[in-house]
Design goal:
Elements: E1 16-17, E2 24-25, H1 27-41, H2 43-50, H3 79-89, H4 96-101, H5 104-107, H6 112-116, E3 125-127, E4 135-136, H7 139-151, E5 159-163, H8 169-182, H9 196-205, H10 217-220, E6 223-227, H11 231-234, H12 238-247, E7 251-255, E8 265-267, H13 272-275, E9 280-281, E10 285-287, H14 294-311, H15 319-325, E11 326-327, H16 329-336, H17 341-348, H18 352-364, E12 368-372, H19 374-377, H20 382-395, E13 405-408, H21 415-420, H22 429-439, H23 451-459, E14 465-469, H24 473-476, H25 480-487, E15 492-497, E16 510-515, E17 523-525, E18 528-530, E19 532-535, E20 540-544, H26 558-570, H27 578-583, H28 585-595, H29 602-606, E21 612-613, H30 617-621, E22 631-632, E23 648-653, E24 658-659, E25 662-663, E26 673-674, E27 679-682, H31 684-690, E28 697-703, E29 709-719, E30 726-730, E31 755-762, H32 766-770
Parallel strand pairs: 2-8, 5-14, 6-7, 6-12, 7-10, 11-22, 12-13, 14-15, 15-16, 23-30, 27-29
Antiparallel strand pairs: 1-26, 3-4, 3-16, 8-9, 17-18, 19-20, 20-21, 23-31, 24-25, 27-30, 28-29, 28-31
């Protein structure tokens, strides 16, 4: 078969802009994904992977955490899932000549897209101190270097151990066990940058920071409110669940600054009407809210609920539920009744009639789901905003009954499972007590560094070593220039990866790249083929087993890498049986069953057809594990982001051909962008006010409280129907505009969805002018 060569042209010289689409899915989703899969994997490998993805005896898709339906279809994958598998399981590999021809410093000038297109990593690589090139190294010598540097630290807290959401439950548990056996709680993860606000808000209000619904609840609901979310790109299989809900009679309201195709219409490629028909209209109401206005909107709807109750006492609120299960209602009522309607309109950019319509829909619905993603979690007031969602649901008893509840949607495949398994810098004492008892040691108790704190600590010389289990910390974190400089101050950086990314170019004095198996690949250990487990966004845990041969001989699994790491660092005589974990993954699962709440008899449960669902007291029994034993209403003071005249409010977004920091192409089909990413989406009326013509080029500057001039240069303006006063730019390129210290209150998540910016006209890039 023919394998495509590495991408050579990564400029935006061929940028094309067309009208945004008003429908997601359909025949194009097959036309864009299937030929690419066959070209890069071949027919046999494509069939083995795609037909096994998300099946009960197959492997879990790595591109999102959307739950699997109880009854699986033959093709249980979406367009972006197929692209993710192709990206991981393609047969192109990086040879030694690549490292000879490309220095570390030269990689810094390459785009994230170019780096990811070079092929799979197949052998350990080492950059010695003083060198500008990676060179091959044996696994034994690689782990010897890591052991030397970790054991030479003055304190275990001078190392930080990052984790990506693609890591399995087994690896996550073993990894956090190693870090704590080594002596630190420095366990940042990608959740710090996405749903940390969700966890904080929900734990403080209902006692658990996870979705309180099951997959089947979508079809049982009367009303689904989708907030700050783009399911057509970030978790396309959700569109099928929404279509099923519509067929069953549910109403859908979409609340978002951008009119995303996946919120408008869905053409299901597995239905005839999706391939050749008009598809299914999804949103019955679209509220084009101003960025950071969601908290005000929830308070305004709640005010109307209280007004309806006053007009018909006893007929609106769920008094029995409120009396038995909730606390703080009267304080909340007093606050909400004083909400200023003018302030709400200013914060949301919505008309009173639009808010009235949403409130009317909520009051008519007996079973309501509110679902959200990073459009809500990455604001200064993200935590109180999510608490307002909980407040609204509590008023009418929309938690703990079929078809109703809060539903945060995780965008990374096992980020939720990683947290369940102990990947958190703030794990509670009951978990640490159980861990210490199981393995006969005293885990450290002081809270460690999260992702933002780790970058600060690197910058300030408090950290010496970074070990990253997957992910792309440099690409994903805010304040790109600060992050790049911070990592280069370390003595050693270690990246466990399948492919190249920018974190391999901004490294410590010494750097290691350790190649690992992909989720699609067969994992053979001493006792035979192994499987791992993952947790999806609705708390369902199931097995995942690769189906194709590894792309090269000698690549280690993540479990094997952590096992070798632990033995090298802690010594072969360490009392924990690290080698046993590697030989047979059942051994680590047996320990999980003794330590992790809800995971008793883990080995048996994950071998059940389809796995099992973790307990969720608010969902299962309307039991709320808060300090009071009640669901807590909360009072949040409304604060509107102040945007000076001539400025806009920025949000970062993904393109359609993108997963996290991974780009499958330079296209964004649904928004009408092809062959380019250096663009800004601005409302046409704002362009007129700013005096900036559509298609011109600007530098975009952020205006942070620290006074630092952060700039992203030579971005092409695209006139786009976004909310007035708002602008959208692609992540991760626009991360350079987000100050490291500009984070959400209570969660420390970067505020990538509400950055005040100004646009300054500039000349077109040389390639654009020539073209």
């Amino acid at each position: 078969m023919s394998i495509k060569p590495p991408v050579q042209d990564e400029s935006d010289a061929e940028l094309q802009v067309s009208k945004p689409k008003r429908s997601a899915g359909g025949l194009p989703s097959l036309q864009y994904s299937m030929p690419q899969a066959v070209a890069e994997m071949g027919v046999t490998r494509s069939a083995k992977t795609l037909l096994a993805m998300n099946q009960k005896d197959g492997f879990d898709c790595m591109s999102c955490a959307w739950p699997d339906p109880p009854e699986r279809k033959t093709a249980e994958f979406c367009e972006n899932g197929a692209k993710a598998v192709t990206w991981e399981a393609g047969l192109l590999t990086i040879g030694r000549d690549f490292w000879e021809n490309n220095s570390v410093s030269s990689l810094r000038s390459r785009s994230e897209y170019w780096l990811g297109q070079q092929g799979r990593l197949v052998e350990p690589m080492y950059k010695p101190a003083g060198s500008d090139h990676y060179q091959p190294i044996s696994w034994e010598n690689a782990f010897r270097i890591v052991a030397r540097e970790l054991n030479d630290l003055d304190s275990p807290d001078e190392a930080t151990f990052y984790t990506s959401g693609r890591t399995s439950n087994e690896t996550a548990f073993q990894y956090q066990l190693f870090a704590r056996a080594f002596g630190t709680n420095n366990l940042p993860d990608c959740s710090n940058m996405c749903h940390e606000s969700t966890g904080k808000a929900m734990e403080e209000t209902i006692g658990i920071g996870k979705s309180a619904i099951a997959y089947e609840d979508f079809e049982k609901s009367d009303l689904i409110i989708i907030m700050g979310q783009n399911p057509g790109t970030c978790h396309p299989r959700m569109l099928t669940a929404l279509e099923e809900a519509k067929d069953a009679g549910s109403t859908i309201v979409a609340i978002n600054p951008l009119p995303e195709a996946g919120l408008i219409n869905f053409k299901n490629p597995q239905r005839p009407r999706g391939l050749v028909g008009k598809g299914t209209d999804l949103a019955d109401q679209f509220l084009q809210i101003r960025l950071a206005g969601d908290m005000a909107l929830m308070q305004a709807v709640a005010k109307r609920v209280f007004a309806a109750e006053a007009a018909a006492p006893g007929a609106v609120l769920d008094h029995a539920f409120l009396e038995e299960h909730c606390q703080g209602l009267e304080e909340y009522r007093a606050h909400i009744e004083n909400v200023d309607e003018k302030a709400v309109r200013e914060a949301t950019g919505l008309r009173t009639a639009e808010i009235d319509e949403l409130a009317s829909r909520y009051l008519k619905a007996d079973k309501v789901i509110v679902t959200w993603a990073m459009g809500l979690t990455q604001h200064k007031k993200a935590v109180p905003t999510i608490k307002e969602i909980i407040n609204l649901l509590l008023l009418r008893g929309n938690i703990g009954k079929p078809g109703a509840g809060p539903s945060p949607i995780r965008g990374h495949s096992n980020v939720q499972g990683d947290r369940t398994m102990g990947i958190w810098e703030q794990m509670p004492d009951h978990f640490l007590d159980a861990l210490g008892k199981e393995f006969n040691f005293d885990p450290p108790r002081a809270h460690g560094f999260d992702a933002v704190q780790s970058i600060r600590a690197m910058r300030d010389g408090m950290l010496k070593v970074l070990f990253a289990m997957g992910g792309n910390l440099v690409g994903a974190i805010s304040d790109t220039a600060v992050a790049e400089a911070a990592l280069q101050k370390l003595k050693l950086t270690v990246q466990v990866s399948t492919k190249l990314n920018r974190s391999h170019a901004f490294v410590g004095a010494q750097a290691l790249i350790l190649p690992t198996l992909g989720r699609t690949e067969i994992d053979r250990q001493a006792t035979g083929e192994q499987f791992v487990t993952v947790e999806d966004t609705v708390c369902a845990v199931h097995a995942s087993s690769g189906k194709v041969e590894p792309v090269a001989v000698g690549i280690l699994s993540e479990m094997a890498i952590v096992s070798h790491l632990a033995r090298a660092v802690l010594g072969k005589n360490h009392p924990i049986d690290w080698a046993g974990f590697e030989a047979n993954y059942d051994t680590i699962r047996e320990h999980i069953s003794h330590v992790v709440p809800g995971c008793s008899d883990y080995n048996a449960k994950v071998r059940q057809w389809g796995g099992f669902v973790l307990p969720h007291p608010p969902r299962d029994s309307r039991t709320f594990p808060t300090p009071t034993g009640k669901a807590m209403f909360s009072v949040g003071e409304l604060e509107t982001v102040q945007v000076p005249k001539g400025r806009l409010l920025l949000q970062t977004v993904r393109s359609h051909d993108q997963f996290n920091t991974t780009m499958y192409s330079l296209n964004d089909r649904y928004r009408g962008v092809k062959k380019g990413r250096q663009v800004l989406f601005v409302n046409p009326s704002d362009l007129v006010e700013l005096g900036i013509p559509n298609g011109s080029y600007v530098d975009i500057h952020s205006e942070s409280v620290d006074g630092v001039d952060r700039v992203l240069r030579q971005q092409r303006i695209i006139s786009f129907p976004t909310a007035r006063g708002c602008v959208a730019a692609y992540f991760p390129e626009a991360n350079v505009l987000v100050a490291l210290d500009d984070t959400a209150e209570g969660s420390n998540t970067p505020v990538s969805k509400s950055v005040v910016v100004r646009l300054e006209k500039t000349d077109a890039p040389a390639f654009a002018a020539a073209h």
